[in-house]
Amino acid sequence: MISTFLRYCDFIGVSPRIYYNGNFRFKTQTGGLLSILLSIFLIIISSYFIYIFLSKNSFTLYENLLTIPRAHKIFRKEDFSIILLDKYFHKIENSSQIYSIYADIWTDKRYYEDGILQSKTNITPVSIEQCNITKYEKFELWKNEKLINDSICFSEEAIESNINSTGVYGETGYTGIVFWISMCTNSSIKNNCYPIEKSKEILDNVFVYVKILDIYFDHGDLNNNAINYIHSELIQASSSVYKRVWYLFREVEYISDEGILFMEEKKKKIYYFIFFL
Q: Exposed, middle or buried: residue 134 (CB in 10 Å: 0-12, 13-18, 19+)?
């Protein structure tokens, strides 16, 4: 009675099977060969996908051609520095008595007057000052840069006014920062400049030392693929030659593909970095 009841309650019992030579499956040599081949195939496929998963670094970099180089970049104090060096790449002593650096923001305005499209460029002074990297977010990048504390950067006042760069000079809606380097000339406001001939001699063969906070891409790093670095450039200049150099900013759409079998877009971001014209 009790044994019957216990058997009735058993829900983990094993179904009855018929065995052939001690095995519940009927096995053949052909089946064994196919099983071995199938096992090798599954091991190869599994190993391949494990390798892809562990070494996945497939990225796609898109440049939106409709917005290049019309990127809209708002500047920070740590984005840019500039200084003039002599022909031996040394700081020019008593520089305030030899030359001066100033900056403007140029803004293109288009409007219609009497049915005709007109263009006007508004020029507004931009406040600059001697660099002070102690307040920089990227201080660790800047701290070992040569002559950074003697260079010129944007002032706090300029940054608070959201100075920016948009588009290319000559285009509708263009906005850009223009730096000027001019020889010191005595006037009613300033009267301690070097004699013109002496200043010309000093500035006859000099270099503009420009530093820009730029970006390069590490395609092997899923979590931090945009790396900041300081781009430095020496531009030869002379007091006898008028020269202009353009720095433009690209707008880049970076999409990382973390999918294994199918594309899986992640971390879609917009970055800005310089190129030269």
A: exposed
Rg (CA), the chain: 34
**Which residue did the predictor score with more confidence, 35 or 194?**
194
> Whole domain around residue 256: which residue ranges?
60-276
Q: Is residue 11 part of a domain?
A: no
Same domain, 70 and 50: no
> Distance between CA 171 and CA 70 in Å, rounded?
9
pLDDT tens across 199-212, in order?
989 998 899 999 99
Which residues lie closer than 8 Å to 66 by C-beta, 6 or more apart? none
Query: How far apart (Å, rounded) are the C-alpha atoms in residues 212 and 194?
Result: 31
- What is the domain count for the chain? 2
- Both 136 and 234 in a single domain? yes
Looking at the fold, whether 36 and 159 belong to one and the same domain comes out as: no
235 shares a domain with 257: yes
Q: In what order do the strands lie in the sheet with 59-63?
A: 59-63, 247-257, 265-276
Residues 150 and 184 in one domain: yes
Residue 84 and residue 26 in one domain? no
Model pLDDT for residues 118-131, shown as the tens digit of each residue = 788 899 999 999 99
